[in-house]
Amino acid sequence: MVVAEVVAMTFQLGDSYDVVVVGGGAAGLNGALMLARSRRSVVVVDAGSPRNAPAGGVHGLLARDGMPPAELVELGRAEVRRYGGHVVPGEVDAVTRDGGGFAVSLVDGRTVRARRLLVTTGLVDELPDVPGLRERWGRDVVHCAYCHGWEVRDQAIGVLASGPMAVHQALMFRQLSADVTFFAHDRQLTAEQAEQLAARGVDVVAGEVASLEIAGDRVVGVRLADGRTVGREVVAVASRMVARAGLLTALGLRPVPHPSGMGEHVPADATGRTEVPGVWVAGNVTDLSAQVGAAAAAGAAAGAQINADLIAEETRLAVEAYRSPFSAESEARVAELVAGDRRHGL
């Protein structure tokens, strides 16, 4: 029996944890690591559909540059488990209030309860409806100069205008290649933008893009609606990024437009705390542009804040019990917390 199966067997209906982490990427695993190291009972529920799955490697992450995303995740899972945390496969369907905590319902019918919730479900990349983009996504169709730029340096790069940051994206890729073409598609350049592109030697092609040209399992060009084809080896396109947050609907927490105009996110303060008490977010679900390192750091910060929040609650209840030794309600609550610690070997 493999380790994942053994761990999954411990995750039974009715289990209760200090914290449930929804999403097992860099943010979720680092948050869980901080909590587990603080002797909190924590479970990470991971649907296994990371945004960066098509990528060949994680880049810009110190000491892990170029590591395949799946390998990084496996290392993170092992570290969480080393400190007593659980990582289990599953997809969360909904989260509802359950007394002072939360009931987390999975699509397979299982339910787990938590005192606090950390949501690190990431985002979905919505691409323009241009044939070829989705099929080549993460290979020779890229979006981030910091994530993929070095790997496509000095190649013939086409930038497909798809959002408010398109010109900025073209200028970033111009830093990496002298051969950059900007496809205006359905966008109208301002005079200032046209001047910037011209000054940096970026060719501008007007007209709607119809599809990508693919040959031999690689991009070879961009075809326009008027029949023209412009040879390219790489296409950069900015996706519309939308937070995966449907599971929070029952709590009244929904994605809102991001100030950048690049998509929708779940707003939170600098620690990841949302407007719903007891719910934190970290990673791309709230920070659309966060790379792996930034997402992991945000998860760690959120984990620390959640631990601090739990300490404050436990201390308040302990003080109430200390001041009122004959308060049945306070004594029962403290006894419940102590019993929970014992159940998890603390």
From TrEMBL:
Coiled coil: none annotated. Residues 17-299 form the FAD/NAD(P)-binding domain. The keyword Flavoprotein applies. Signal peptide: none annotated. Keywords: Flavoprotein, Oxidoreductase. It catalyses: [thioredoxin]-dithiol + NADP(+) = [thioredoxin]-disulfide + NADPH + H(+). This is Thioredoxin reductase. The lineage of its organism: Bacteria, Bacillati, Actinomycetota, Actinomycetes, Pseudonocardiales.
